[in-house]
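In this supplementary section we document a worked example of the pipeline. Step one takes a protein sequence of length 381 as its only input; no multiple sequence alignment statistics are reported here. Step two produces a three-dimensional model, which step three serialises into structure tokens for compact storage. The input and output of this example are shown verbatim.
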Amino acid sequence: MSAAIYLDYNATTPVDPRVMQKMLPYFTEHYGNPSSQAHMYGWAANAAVEKARLEVAQCLGASRPSEIIFTSGATEGINSAIKGVAEVSSQKRRHMVTVRTEHHAVSHVCKYLEQRGWDITYVPVNEDGLVDLDSLRDSLTDRTVLVCVMWANNETGVIQPIAEIAELVRGRGIPFMTDATQAVGKIPVSVEDVDILVCCAHKVYGPKGVGAMFVRSRIRCAPLIDGGGQEQGMRSGTHNVPGIVGMGESFRLAELEQAQDAKRLSDLRDRLEHALLGAGLGIQINSAGASRLPQTSSISFPGLNLERLLLSIRTLAVGTGSACGSGKRTPSAVLSAMGIRNDVAAQTLRISLGRPTTEGEVLEASELLRQALDGLYNKAA
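The serialised model returned by step three reads:
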């Protein structure tokens, strides 16, 4: 039996060794500042940043690499996009639309704007977590300056109908933003239907502390960080060159390997779910009726003490919701928005597989869970 099985890849992924190899020279050999354009060290660093920008653009289907802005991660990108659009909006158009199942990086920024007089509409979802398109349509007004809908949910893996949403929103001339942090590298993602897209590297086997935002050139968006004017004035500050190089390589590899990874991981996820469902222990797979990310499974254990379950499977590293909120005792806002009772939502695990996950690990994990559940449910009975 292995020492530990990591099944929390939606929280973060290990850096791919191929990515690390690309990054290493930019810590020690090519350590120049890209803004230093008077010598070869700066030229080499700048060339590396622009190469990575092209790689990210190609992965996202962006025809203009200049529309890719590097950030410190998805949270910064989300803050930059929402607050940046708000900053340039007139007093008469202070309305945004989002969804009840968004990541805290979106919902908390919206709460921040509400405290400053903005009107925010939170569109409901159905029992599978899919956005209610009629409610979304009805929420749009002449005052709406931005619509924010996550591409794929970080807890349940539910994939939203981005093309349909875009048709509704952009048909009204309203900019459309998506948080694609969990989607990139798992399913095909393209900026074709959106005006702003936010993502990061560490969910795609790249380094932590680096991300990117696609901002269509026609979109007015004030910078969140002022300073030296890097990233076309959209994000000042010295570039994290090793991180940016790593993001470029991780996105290049994701574009090449996404389809084969998706097929393998969806097969493994289905095997895990079927094994647990077949044990007859009364569990429920959340969002099973919707299109989901291939590696993500949200599983509720009604009537079970989740802490006891986690204590009984110490060698299994799984999540209990969003990594940003897993240390909190409050029920998942995502599951609550789907109509799942708070007591059931509190007894939910998020299992997410990754590129290193093996068939043997999935079989061992399912057996560990089955044994632990069997024992705990028998005790409860």
